[in-house]
Design goal:
- It holds the Pfam family Pro_CA.
- This is Transporter.
- Keywords: Membrane, Transmembrane, Transmembrane helix.
- Catalyzes the reversible hydration of carbon dioxide to form bicarbonate.
- The protein contains 31 helices and 13 strands.
- The radius of gyration is 30 Å and the shape is globular.
- The relative contact order is 0.11.
């Protein structure tokens, strides 16, 4: 009898079209391969982190399994992999030293309950307001603490619970080395460093095996074959595995412990989820229907996992960047990959105990020490230096090392607030006259506190004079704005002229210069803009172009050079350090600095007809693009490469019209052959064709322009420097499309049905994007 039918309704005949039976837990092939890759990374790291905290080694496996299964099923970021993280090592080690292992498990459970409460209050995005310098400083301090402690095990000794004590004991430890432990540690570190750099085709195949697994396996095999006597992994029987106990101790200390664990777990997990969003958005090819992470749900999933892990005697859990990056780069398309990885950890913990017990403890210590060193990121240091936040970074790092994670973070936040208030209140206003022009320069943020000084300085400008007010800051409140506008109206009414100019997205209210004199500046709004060389009739007729060029250069020297000389002098001293390679078309309507709001030193720009990237070996005598890619990636160390196409591209129109010609052809026809794969790709299945968010391509030319961006990204991946940097997680690729007529930029994203170019303004919020950019800079961070 059918369970859905009334009790007395017979079914004499079976239905003619039975519904197809669906699998309860379908697992795609991409998810399965990604799960195996993540499992091979997670297994040695979980044991190493448990060793570093002083917890039972099985606790690392419990946390890895629970993080994969529970967070994978309940979390709001499907492709983020959670488990025991290096960022929690110092916190957990301190708790175990103070309260013992079972009480630490109870604290983990309470931290999970606190995370559930925060998730229900929907305050997850509030964690993203923490200063990037504080986050980077916290990670650096934790990394230093881990590295110093594990160095003692690498040398064959035992670490103390205090960083300062470990540093004091280091000379004595160096005098009492243990050769067997040292040899296994050195072998582990050598394999970790050498494995990702194996050359040739064989090296590319071998590098697919995680370096951490190779290093630990190599050390274990060497120790077993040589018969070295040294401490190894000991996994006690699961029957004697310790579960959580009731928290015991001073109430204030327990509250501080729960708060610290909650803070570190939550911040690391939420920032990791934002980073995974960016990794998924940058990925091209077939994709799952995965939207942006639900951070409140992610916090709920992390809380549930910490409750389960603590109850079962596991380590605290947070999102782990290394495993998440491997999961995304391995092609995972759903949360099933993280869940399968957790199941594999359970199988290994039950069936691979004899194998795991062959691993030398010195090898695990060397692995974790390398992770700790990587957490002190030179890129982070350069970033905070560029943003003048070194005091925040330094105080946080030293506070974490000397006092603890929670105290160090509180100190860092306090210094960050003090620096922000200092910048807000510190405003320098100067006035000087040069060649009859009165310059009033405002350095810093212009708030109501500075209005009296601003008013006094502006009144030093004589009536009828020409004045230029330069705003060298990023913020101006309403009171200051009204003061400026009132003065300008009064000054112009008395026969004077006034010009307001800002260095960063500032305002400029002066009248547009006459057509005979170009006064365009990089920060001038491009409304009603006319190019200097189109202003005069003689130039439109092809005459006097040289004179107009000289006139434009003269205008730059007179008007713009004095304002940018200081910045360019700094770049000349320090050299260029761009973070991005921007490859776009040579079309004169694409002004890269305008559409990216960038300035000197920001972008390494390559322009050619059709924004083409010839595949390796097919340059046909032109290696310029390949040379630029190699220089940008290997020498300049850019972190991002963007291929930007645009609407109405003449190269794409030529491809559609002539197909790049036949035979040798002209130089232009030979160059456009690199666009033939894009032309062929447009003939593919309609579901796989790119489109703009909200609409299909307007015509065949726009379809080819969009397809060409996707195809050139595929060509870009074939270049050796790019492939190596992608494999190391040191590089991101982005696709971009600029619609000239709409002045609208679109960024490449993807779904299962089609490749989509999303509206930048509609898809990304300014504040959130700024936070995302901070975390993704270190995809290799654990």
């Amino acid at each position: 009898m059918s369970a859905c039918a009334p009790p007395h309704t017979p079914h004499p005949h079976p239905p003619h079209n039975p519904a197809p039976t669906r699998r309860r837990f379908p697992v795609a092939g991409a998810d399965l391969s990604a799960a195996v890759a993540v499992f091979l990374i997670a297994l040695p790291l979980s044991l190493g982190i448990a060793l570093a905290t002083g917890a039972p080694l099985q606790a690392g496996l419990v946390a890895a399994a629970v993080g994969g299964i529970v967070v994978g099923r309940l979390g709001g970021c499907p492709l983020q992999v959670s488990g025991p993280a290096a960022g929690l090592t110092v916190v957990t080690a301190d708790l175990i030293h103070r309260y013992g292992w079972r009480v630490t498990c109870g604290i983990t459970v309470l931290a999970g309950l606190a995370q559930l409460g925060l998730g229900c209050l929907r305050v997850a995005r509030g964690a993203l307001a923490v200063s990037p310098a504080v986050v980077h400083g916290m990670l650096a301090g934790i990394g230093i603490t881990i590295a110093v402690a594990q160095l003692h095990i690498v040398l064959g000794g035992n670490p103390d619970s205090s960083v300062l004590a470990n540093l004091r004991a280091l000379p004595a430890q160096l005098a009492d080395l243990h050769p067997a432990a040292m040899s296994m540690s050195v072998l582990t570190l050598a394999l970790l460093l050498a494995w990702p750099r194996l050359p040739g085709r064989a090296g590319r195949l071998l590098r697919r095996v995680p370096a951490a697994l190779v290093a630990v396996t190599g050390a274990a095999a060497t120790a077993a074959l040589t018969g070295l006597s040294l401490p190894r992994v000991e996994l006690p029987s699961w029957h004697s595995h310790a579960l959580a106990g009731l928290p015991e101790g001073p109430a204030l200390g327990l509250v501080a412990a729960v708060l610290t664990t909650t803070l570190v777990c939550s911040v690391q997990s939420l920032l990791g989820a934002v980073a995974v969003d960016k990794l998924v958005a940058a990925r091209t090819g077939p994709q799952s229907r995965i939207g942006r992470s639900d951070l409140d749900r992610e916090l709920l999933g992390q809380g549930a996992a910490n409750i389960v892990s603590g109850t079962l005697g596991g380590l605290p859990i947070a999102g782990v960047a290394v495993r998440s990056t491997a999961n995304v780069n391995s092609g995972a398309v759903s949360r099933n990959s993280t869940m399968v990885h957790g199941v594999l950890v359970v199988v290994a913990a039950l069936l691979m105990v004899p194998v795991l017990e062959e691993i030398p403890l010195a090898s695990l210590a060397a692995l974790v020490m390398a992770v700790g060193i990587q957490m002190v990121s030179l890129h982070h240091i350069r970033t905070v230096t560029r943003h003048r936040e070194v005091p925040v970074y330094a105080v946080t790092t030293l506070g974490v090392v000397a006092l603890g994670v929670l105290q160090g973070v509180f100190l860092g936040v306090a210094v960050a607030v003090a620096v922000a208030l200092h910048r807000l209140a510190r405003t320098r206003i100067t006035h000087h006259e040069k060649e009859g022009v009165h310059h009033v320069r405002v350095r810093g943020q212009l708030t109501f506190l500075a209005v009296p000084r601003l008013s006094r300085t502006l009144h030093l400008v004589p009536q009828g004079a020409h004045a230029v007010v330069e705003l060298d800051g990023s913020f101006m409140d309403h009171a200051a704005y009204e003061s400026l506008q009132d003065w300008r109206s009064s000054h112009t009414a008395r026969g004077g002229t006034a010009e307001l100019a800002g260095r960063r997205d500032g305002i400029r209210t002066a009248e547009r210069a006459p057509a005979t004199e170009c006064r365009c500046r990089p920060w001038t709004p491009w409304r009603n803009h006319q190019a200097c060389f189109a202003a005069a009739p003689a130039v439109r007729e092809g005459q006097g172009a040289g004179r107009e060029l000289a006139r434009g250069i003269s205008s730059f020297q007179r008007n713009t050079a004095p304002l940018v000389r200081e910045e360019l002098a700094r770049l000349a001293r320090e050299g260029q350090r761009p973070s991005q390679l921007f490859l776009t078309c040579a079309d004169s309507r694409l002004v890269t600095s305008m559409i990216t709001a960038s300035g000197p030193g920001d972008l390494f720009v390559v322009r050619n007809v059709g924004n083409l990237v010839p595949p390796p070996g097919e340059e046909h005598g032109d290696d310029s693009v390949a040379a630029a890619i190699e220089y940008a990636v290997d020498v300049l160390g850019v972190r991002s490469i963007t291929v930007c196409g645009h609407s109405g591209c003449g190269a794409m129109q030529a491809l559609l019209t002539t197909g790049a010609g036949q035979g040798d052809g002209t130089p232009l026809q030979r160059w456009l052959r690199h666009g033939l794969p894009s032309l062929a790709r447009t003939a593919g299945d309609p579901p796989g064709r790119p489109r703009l968010a909200g609409r299909e391509p307007a015509d065949t030319v726009e379809l080819l322009c969009l397809t060409n961006v996707v195809q050139q990204l595929a060509h870009l991946r074939e270049h050796g420097p790019v492939a190596r940097a992608l494999a190391e997680g040191a590089l991101e690729l982005h696709g971009m499309y600029f619609h000239v007529g709409e002045a609208q930029a679109y960024l490449l994203a993807g779904t299962e049905e089609a490749v989509v170019f999303e509206d930048v303004a509609g898809g990304i919020g300014g504040g959130e994007e700024a936070r995302e950019g901070v975390w993704v800079t270190s995809p290799g961070q654990v």
